[in-house]
Structures are given as C-alpha cells and as structure tokens.
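Section 5.1 Outputs to date
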Amino acid sequence: MKFVSQALNGIFRENPIFKLVLGLCPTLAVTTSLENAIGMGLAATFVLVCSNVLVSALRKFIPAAVHIPCYIVIIATFVTAIDLMMQAYLPALSKSLGIFIPLIVVNCIILGRAEAYASRNPVFMSFADGLGTGIGFTLALSLVASVREIAGAGTLTVWGDIAFKVNPGPVTLAVLPAGGFIALGLLLAAINAFSSWNARRHGSPPPLPVNLDCRHCTMCNKSK
C-alpha cells in the first residue's frame, strides 16, 4: 500500500507541473504535439526511476559534501543512455525533441526527487516515487500537448502514423511559444479552481498557492 500511495502522490497530490509548477521549460517547448510530449515524458520517467533507484542504493556511501555533484553524474549517465537509444531506435523523435533530451540532466524535477526523496528512503520506495513522478509528468505534458495540438492543428498525433483528425483548429497561436504559456495558464487555473471547489465541498480550506521561487521549493525543502 505504501508503494501505491507514493506512486499516486507523484501523479496527483504533487504533480510536478500542475501542483509544484516545475519543469516548465520542456513543458512549454515540446508540447506542440502529443507524440513529442509522450516521448519526453517516457524519457524523463526512465531517468527518474533509474536515478532514484541508484541514488537510494548509494545514499549511505555518498559523502554529504559532494552529494549534489554525485547525483548529477548519476543523472547524466542515464540521460546519455536514453539519448543514445532514442537516436538509434527513434531518430525522428530524437530530432524533434532536440536539445531537450540532454537538458534532462539539469531538470529540477529529476534532481529534486533525488535530493528530497531518494537520498533519504529505501530503494523500493524510491522506485515508486520515481515511477509516480514520471507518470505524473508524462500525463501533464500529454494534457498540455493535446490542448495545443487540437487547437493549433486540428489533429492529435499519438505516435508515428497513429493520428486523428480532430476539430476545432487550426488556431496558429496555440502551437507558438505564446500559445504554450496561454494553454498552461488556463489549465493551471482550471485545476486550481477545481481543487478549491473540491476542498470547500469537503469542508476544508482552499489549498494555498505555491511560492514560486527557490527559497520555497516544495521538492527540496520537504523532508519525508
């Protein structure tokens, strides 16, 4: 039950994009199509799970003075592996995602989970945390991408040749950088409004807004 609870935590209660508002650079850049979003999400999930497991396994052997550099080396190793695999087996997707696959190395979600959770918890639970956070990230990317692609191109490209013609569209703004900000802002507003309504319905106070700066980072300042 703890495994499932921790996995669901990363999907819903602490979704990296919609709850913690992290990883917005790839969120805005790669969500012009659903295929790109799924590819980016799966790559990040692979790195999250593998780095969390290895950081947790080595947590008692990594000196506190150099733990951040060690985490970055571990993360970079898995990012290089997934980047090379995508270049070999999914060259079109790799070319479409471009620099954003190597930039997973400095993604605050990956390093944040290594520092905030994997370095303090056993391997099994760290695996659950990485898997849940990765799935939550993938679902959030997919939702933003679906809205932008449907509005911007009138299509929904699931993977490769699997695509659907969907109306409405095209609204060119939706696939431009400004459209990414607008789509994400509207989705965040809708989710926050629903969260407030649901809290009031259960007699609880509305959730407080996240303080969007490094001093209040809910991933690194939180201890479990």
